[in-house]
Amino acid sequence: MSLKKIIFPISSMFFAIAFLAIGYGMILTFIGVYLKEMGISSSIIGLINGSFFLGAVLSSIFSQKIISTVGHIRSFAAFTSLMVITFLIHSLFFDVTLWIVLRIISGFSFYALLIIIESWLNEKSNEEDRSKILAIYTIIFYLSTAIGQLFLNIDEDFKQSIFTIGSVLVLVSVIFISLTKIKEPILKPFERYSFPKIYSVVPLATVGSFISGYFVGGFFAMLPVYILLKSDSVETVSFFMIIGLIGGLISQWPIGLLSDKYGRRKLISITAFITAITSILFILFSQTNEYLNILGFLLGLTIFAMYPLSVARANDVVDENKDVIEISRTLLFTYGIGSFVAPLLIGFGISYFNPNFLFISYTILGLFLSFYALTKDKIPHEELSVFVNMPVASGAELPEMDPRQDESFDN
């Protein structure tokens, strides 16, 4: 089927994703920068930003029942409204407890919206074009999230208007969803493996998912704060984040091809090791802005590839008798836990241990994962699945879109 015939029927979904991701990207990065400019401690910023990912984890558990009860379009309108309400209240005044609650609600709502969109995309896709739709979804999400970083450069006198702009962008997505003619899919109940069980089945994938969640959660929630402390320039933060995200997008295809050829174990080890080396270079050269964007690109190349590599590893080792979709959902949940832990630990570490704690923790975890991966068994080449690109953020319906679940998908 031609690309045009694939995209046109679900173009409203892609436009909705684009506007959501722009709003998501700009607000997620901006809050840390905004609070640091207000003089708020890194530990409090970590607590507030970590609350967003706590909302994401809760959404993966509870939002599906809400969506199934009231329907996709009504749920989309409701969760979008909740996101807009939280953004606008942010702009009114600051209170730590209130902002924690707002970030939990915002994270819950955003990831519920992803579940709705992903289930629609899955409903419209078939075995023939599923991989193409997921690739387009991934590209749109990365590019839109990167575009959102440009809004950080708004003039100082209009900084608080970013919350209003974010609200407008999220609301625009409702227009596209409201006009869609795609029928509402039926969401299947989500079931999860326990952590001990999932670790016993796919240990490297489980550890890799958690650490990759830590890396990505730290990237969005606390790295902008770190860059602002070092450079004292919001413009530097903005372009650093854009370059890191572009690096993440570019890395998906070559790392995927290399992992299909040489195996996930080696690629997980290599990307984790490069993350550790890059983190050491950040500590050594963080005062020199000319190297900042190069290091940001290198960091994006590796940290955004680790979760797809972990999921691919799970698909390599899981046999046909296991529920691959539920294992993938559990890995996504593990990734979310890592994203939640990162801002809390990094914020506390920066405030009370060392200003470079973010990259100290990245170095330790990167080295650990690099050597841990090499202790695991090598999978014979003929038993490897195929690497699949994934967006920078995803809901609990993404495993349903994974083309590796299709019997006809070519290994």
Automatic annotation (TrEMBL):
Domain named Major facilitator superfamily (MFS) profile: residues: 9-378
Transmembrane segments: 12-34, 40-63, 75-94, 100-121, 133-154, 160-180, 201-225, 237-255, 267-285, 291-309, 330-350, 356-374
Location within or outside the cell: Cell membrane
Predominant location category: membrane
Keywords, sorted A to Z: Cell membrane, Membrane, Transmembrane, Transmembrane helix, Transport
InterPro entries: MFS (IPR011701), MFS_assoc_dom (IPR024989), MFS_dom (IPR020846), MFS_trans_sf (IPR036259), MFS_YcaD-like (IPR047200), Sugar_transporter_CS (IPR005829)
Gene Ontology CC entries for this record: plasma membrane
Topology class, membrane: Multi-pass membrane protein
GO MF terms held by the record: transmembrane transporter activity
Top-level taxon in the UniProt lineage: Bacteria
Protein name: MFS transporter
